[in-house]
Structures are given as C-alpha cells and as structure tokens.
Amino acid sequence: MRISGLLCFGALAGVALASTETGIAKRSTISEILTDIEDDATCAACEALLVVLQALAHLGNDDFVDVITEVCILAGVDDDDVCEGAIAREGPILAHDLRNMDVPSKTAVLFCTTIFGLCDYPAVAEYTVDFPSAKPANASRPTSSGETPLQIVHISDIHVDLSYETGANYNCTKPICCRPYTSSDDPGVTDYPAGEYGNHNCDAPLTLEESMYSAINDLVPNASFVIFTGDVVEGAVWLVNETEVTNDLNDAYNSRMADYFDLVYGVTGNHDCAPVNSFPPADIDTTISSQWAYDTLSSDWSQWIGSTAASTADDYGAYSVKYSGGNLRIISFNTNLYYKENFWLYEKTMEKDPSGQLAWLVDELSAAETAGERVWLMGHMPMGSGDTFHDASNYFNQIIQRYDATIAAVFYGHTHKDEFELAYSNYTDQSADTASMMSYIMPAMTPTSGNPAFRVYSVDPVTFGVLDFTEYITNMSSSTYQTNPTWEKYYSAKETYGSLLDPPVTDSAAELTPAFWHNVTVLFENDDSVFQDYYARKSRGWDVSECTGDCKTDEICQLRAAESQYNCVEITPGISFKKRDAITTRDTSTNPRESTCGESVVGQMFSSFDNAVEALIKATETKLGSGFLNTTVNATIS
Ligand SMILES: *[C@@H]1O[C@H](CO)[C@@H](O)[C@H](O)[C@H]1NC(C)=O
Ligand SMILES: *[C@@H]1O[C@H](CO)[C@@H](O)[C@H](O)[C@H]1NC(C)=O
Ligand SMILES: *[C@@H]1O[C@H](CO)[C@@H](O)[C@H](O)[C@H]1NC(C)=O
Ligand SMILES: *[C@@H]1O[C@H](CO)[C@@H](O)[C@H](O)[C@H]1NC(C)=O
Ligand SMILES: *[C@@H]1O[C@H](CO)[C@@H](O)[C@H](O)[C@H]1NC(C)=O
Ligand SMILES: *[C@@H]1O[C@H](CO)[C@@H](O)[C@H](O)[C@H]1NC(C)=O
Ligand SMILES: *[C@@H]1O[C@H](CO)[C@@H](O)[C@H](O)[C@H]1NC(C)=O
Ligand SMILES: *[C@@H]1O[C@H](CO)[C@@H](O)[C@H](O)[C@H]1NC(C)=O
Ligand SMILES: *[C@@H]1O[C@H](CO)[C@@H](O)[C@H](O)[C@H]1NC(C)=O
C-alpha cells in the first residue's frame, strides 16, 4: 500500500479506513464517500470505492449491471453498445466477487492493484509447493544427440472473426472493426473498405487463417506436429456468447486445423470462453459455468490427444499426453487460473492452488521424470507477465525449478508479441549459470498487433531441446497482400544471434539453452542496434518505434523474468484507452508490456479515476435515485 495514499486518505472527512486498526468503524453515506475520494486516485480511495461497489453489488446483479453500464457510457470508455454488452457479461461476475470480498483485505488490495492500478502489489504469500521427491543431485539438461532434427510448428492467437466482412468499415470506433455494425459500415457504403485478407484494426478473416495453414503445409511439409497456444475466438468481447464461442472453437479445431494438420496440441486461451476470461475454479459456488467450454475443447482435442487426456481437459482445460513419435510428453495447462482478469480468482481467501492444477502438474512432471521422458510445457499466458498474479507465478516457478532438467522448454502466446521469458534459479543473481528455463512466446496470427506470423522449431529428436527457430510472416503492407498474401522467412534465432555471441553458437546441433538466451539479453544491453532490431521484430516489423531508456531497461527486465514479481511492470492507473483511435495510440505507446488482450472494460473505466467516480455519482442518482447515495455504510465492511 502506498504510504502517501494512506496519509492523503486519512485526511479525508467522514471515511477513515486507516482507523480500522483501532476497531472504530466510521459510518458515512455513499454520497460522502464518493465525494471524498473523487479527486484522490490512491490505494485507500480505491478500497473505499470497493465499499461502495460492494453496497451496490448487494442490491443484486441487475442494479449493479445497470449502474456500471451507465458509468461506462458516461465516462466515455466505449461505444454505448460495447459498454452494455461488456458489462452485462463482466458485471455479474464482478458483483459476485464484491459480495464475497472483505474490505480491507489482501484480496481487496490486489483487486485495486491489478484492475485499477492504484495499490502497490501485495507481497507474495509464502507457500512451499509439495513435491513427491527431492530434485536428484545429478539432474541436468541432456546434451544434444546430433541426430537429424524434427520440425515442429508453433502458432498462436489466431482470433478468427467469422463475422469479418470484406468491404466493411475498417475504421470504426469499436475495439475491432471490419464488421457491418451499422448500415454506414456496410460494404459499398463505407469510405474505409476492408480488404479480403485482413486489416490491423480487425481480427483475422477466415481467408487469413486458411492462407497461413496452407503456407505451413507448403513451407514445412515434414513438420512432426503443430502446437497452438490458444485464443481462437475474436475480440468482440461485448457480443460473444456460448453459441458463438462453441461454433468458433469447433470451426478452428475441427474444420480448419483438422483439415490441414495431422496432429495439433492446443491450450485453453482466455478468449476461448464466454464471458471472456471467465474460468471459475472448481471450488467457486456459482451458476455461471465454463464447463461447456471445457466440454467443447476436450471434444475437439480428443482426435489428437485421445480420450484419457481429453477427460482431464474436460475437468479444467489442461492435459498431459505422450507424443507417440518420440520420448516426449506434452503438458498443456490452463493459465486462466492465474490470470488477473479472471475475476473469479478474487476470493475471500484466495486459493493457493485453484482447481488443484499445480498439484496435478507436479504429479505429471514427477511421473515424466521417473519415466525419463522429456516434457514440453504449454500454456496461453506467459507466467512471468504483468497479467499473472505474483503469488501463483511464484508457486509455478517452484515447480519449474524443481523439474528444470525434465522440461525442455515452455511455450506460450497471449501477448501477441515476439518475445521470451527466462527463469533463473536465483533472481538476484541472474547469469548464464543461473538461467534455468526458456519460455518461448509466440506472436499472434491476428493482425491487430503486427504482421501475422508462425514459427518452426528445429528440435533434437532425442532430447527435444530447441536447436533453432525460424519465424515466417506475411507482410500486410505489401501491395499484393490483399490479392495474394505470401509467407516468407522473417528470421532465424540462431542465424540472428548465434554468431554475435562470445563464444559464437552456430553449430546446427547446439541447443538454444537458457544460458544462450541469457547471453542474448546481455548482447541486447551491450549492442543497442541488436536490441532495436529485436524490438522491431516484436511486432514483426509493423509500426516500429524506438525503445530506449526505461523502455529498454524494462524490456530486458521482462525478458529475464519468468516469475512475475521480478518483471519490473509498474503499477499505474492505465491510460484511458478507449475506442479506435486511442487503441491505436496505445499499441504504439512506450509501454512494451501492455497486454492488448482481454483487458476488462471495468478496469479501463477506472483508469481515469476521478472521471469514473464522478460518473458513478451521476449513474447511481439516475438509476437508483438519491436514496442509494444517502445510504449509510461502514467505511469498512467486514
Ligand atoms: C542420476 O542418478 C541415478 C541414480 O544413480 C541414475 O539412475 C540416473 O540415470 C542419473 N540421471 C542422470 C541424468 O544422469
Ligand atoms: C478514420 O476516419 C477518420 C474520420 O472519421 C479519419 O480522420 C481517419 O484518417 C481515418 N483513419 C484511417 C486509418 O483511414
Ligand atoms: C521431407 O522429407 C523427405 C523424406 O524424408 C525429404 O526427401 C524432403 O527433402 C523433406 N522436405 C523438406 C522440405 O525438408
Ligand atoms: C449469440 O450471439 C449471436 C451473434 O451475436 C446471436 O445471433 C445469438 O442470438 C446469440 N445467442 C444467444 C443464445 O444469446
Ligand atoms: C542468490 O544470489 C545472491 C546474490 O549473489 C546471494 O546473496 C544469495 O545467497 C543467493 N541465494 C541463493 C538461495 O543461493
Ligand atoms: C554465455 O556467456 C558466458 C560468458 O560470456 C560464456 O562463458 C558461456 O559460454 C555462454 N554460454 C552460451 C550458451 O552461449
Ligand atoms: C513490408 O512491406 C513494406 C512495403 O513494401 C516495407 O516497407 C516493409 O519493410 C516490409 N516489412 C517487412 C517486415 O519486411
Ligand atoms: C438524500 O439526501 C438529500 C440531501 O440531504 C435529500 O435532498 C434527498 O431528499 C435525500 N433522498 C432520499 C431519497 O432520502
Ligand atoms: C457497521 O459498523 C457498526 C458499528 O461498528 C456495526 O454494528 C454494523 O454491524 C456494521 N454494519 C455492517 C453492514 O457491517
């Protein structure tokens, strides 16, 4: 908690959270609380706001959704219909949270940190993950076999929009365009007609998805299999429902991928559900269930992973399966259980291991270690990113450190950027010697954050260590893109960095070890042009800006943080990015880690705190009359 925030808050009339330690609960009207905190975007003010939101939630979901929708509209966060659709979906989950929350509490502070950006991150609650056996003293990463490498394809974040219309307006005011939202957006009417193969303001048309899969088959005919790190569904989160998500998942997995590829290993993305990000852990008592999404994913994946693995996938969207072509186990886990935008996780007493997934992961890794198998661990959200709870990331990292000789590498998507994350056995002593695990982060196919891309890993067929990867892109700025998109090699990791290291790493049989990647980050520090080229590749050469000073320091800090408490992400009230032009501005902002994926509308609403509080006062008055504002509540509700 910020000291200055507390001091400032203590001076406020009427509300006195700081005095709760003495047991005196001050009572005030909601109107007084809101007036007091209006000009005070602090942690304590945020907690006081939660008291008000909680009182609102106790009126029931309908009133809660009504008022918050009005706030969204009044604060000008999004178009009215986006506010209405998004809050109708997010609102009941948030209201459930608030009704069960203690204010003040660690959960309340965490909520004010991750959603409103107004509190400092609470310290990690220490917890020692239980392992069936200690790490063997001789555990070590096996050396490369030198045998002919396999090729394995990585794709991510396809976000296919089956409602994309060629000719529809690409310059709309909504989070994604290229749909005829209104008649003036219609093909033939709009001045901004979308091309056949996509636009950077829109999620991907089916033509782009088909083009990429076809290119993969042409360019990598001998690929052993494809890994897909999640997010099938498009970003019109204010409209998605169970019917659409089910249809999107079935279309991508059963109609498209199954058509082009023999073997695909998928993961559960945060968009692969409705409402978006809504994945209640098993212990939550609610009628809003994501079981149907797990049912659909499990059924779609069973053609590749078999019925045993499919049945775990049906429990919580994760599975473990042996690859039949070699000594490799694929473990796909559900990162939504650690994602800050999954509102179900803000429980009264937050669970250390939601749905028991970490214990399951330990069991699977332990069995793989005993069997002498190598493991590829796959998830959607990188566990070191600013989107991941510090606590969960710490517990997960204990598992990575314990099994770092068994896990060959970790694979993620979600950020839409070409980047990576390194784990260290000791984060205060980051070096090639302590670098212990590499996480490969695959950029998106959807064009919203850059040129569409896929990757091909060159992989040791015995150790399954990654020897290199080659990234392919299609350049949307090319004059022939909209008639005939072509896919070309963009760069290879080993070609780009290997010869610049000391000693050089150019042998095709040499693994790209965690130490190799640590040395690449040192190269970034020492050779700025290599770093700027890396930075340009994050968006695959689209809309490139320079990254210097804090931007560069923070970027390298994030590359060296597979545990999120070390990632240097600063907690700040977000830029109030709204509507189309501001979203474009945000993409080119200097904050390199800003996730463009799955941000809640509620979080965006309160990123301009005084504006939102003022809107809340007006909205409650309009929707509920002055009676609610006159209600007396305790500044702390136990
Ligand atoms: C570690 O030692 C055990 C027991 O001596 C042996 O079975 C195992 O193969 C060794 N593992 C490695 C990676 O050398
Ligand atoms: C989008 O439309 C606005 C006017 O509504 C115009 O000023 C702007 O230049 C357009 N943007 C693009 C990328 O065409
Ligand atoms: C694919 O494998 C076949 C047979 O092993 C080989 O002849 C061919 O050159 C390979 N193609 C590519 C593109 O690597
Ligand atoms: C789901 O969304 C689609 C597309 O927006 C809509 O046509 C359909 O009526 C919705 N279904 C339900 C059950 O709400
Ligand atoms: C981690 O590194 C720091 C700095 O070198 C050192 O002081 C500390 O003892 C190390 N921790 C462990 C657990 O080895
Ligand atoms: C990393 O750099 C260190 C120090 O420069 C060097 O000793 C080591 O061999 C390098 N490791 C790799 C894998 O490049
Ligand atoms: C894409 O094409 C444009 C236009 O030809 C060119 O300026 C740009 O450098 C290309 N980008 C990449 C990554 O090749
Ligand atoms: C709320 O308080 C205001 C100011 O004290 C008063 O004018 C208004 O009538 C009250 N409203 C209700 C419903 O009690
Ligand atoms: C508010 O505080 C008073 C006095 O401490 C207490 O009696 C009352 O139960 C509290 N109300 C709520 C809703 O917690």
TrEMBL record:
SUPFAM superfamilies the UniProt entry points to: Metallo-dependent phosphatases
Main location: secreted
GO CC annotations on file: extracellular region; membrane
Keyword entries, A-Z: Disulfide bond, Glycoprotein, Glycosidase, Hydrolase, Metal-binding, Secreted, Signal, Zinc
Positions contributing to Zn(2+) 1 binding: D157, H159, D231, H416
GO biological process: ceramide biosynthetic process; sphingomyelin catabolic process
Cofactor: Zn(2+)
UniProt xrefs under Pfam families: ASMase_C, Metallophos
Signal peptide residue numbers: 1-18
A GO MF label: hydrolase activity, acting on glycosyl bonds
Membership in a protein family: Belongs to the acid sphingomyelinase family.
Protein's name according to its UniProt entry: Sphingomyelin phosphodiesterase
Species: Aspergillus eucalypticola (strain CBS 122712 / IBT 29274)
